[in-house]
# Entry
Amino acid sequence: VEWDITSHQHAEINLYRNDVNNLIDRKGRSYQYQNLDQVVLQGVEVGWQGNLGELFSFTLDYTYLDAYDENSGYWLSYQPAHKLDWNLSYISEFGLTVYSSGQYVSKRVTPHPESELLPQYYLVNLKISQKLFMRFYPFVEIKNVFDKNYEEEKGFPAPGRAYIMGTKIVF
# Structure
């Protein structure tokens, strides 16, 4: 279902259910792939995007996921029940862009039989760029601004804060 809230804002909601036979999956990076006979992936996705005045734009996306193996009843490994993504952009009249994004990921279960819950985490990223000479966009970016320690999979810590500088060239 989609809805144009105003001429500058749009929302949508999607409900889904997938009954999957022979899903190819693995318990983690150090495991071999295997077929899961009967898997259910169902949930809801809600999105909202738009402009706040002439210089700001945003997106906000939420996903609820219920993902389990029908034969065993176990929740699929590393699949969060809740996920929230957001973006906020400012684009000035003189070509300066400030872009911020974030992501919340709820607790996830590790593979059975040693199942445990990995903690939830929240990340924030920031990027600033300036348009020069119609084609050049030098930028500075900080990923994981708050230097959050987290694991997407058990035993594989994600990188901490990272600083990136570069130039995008548009042809």
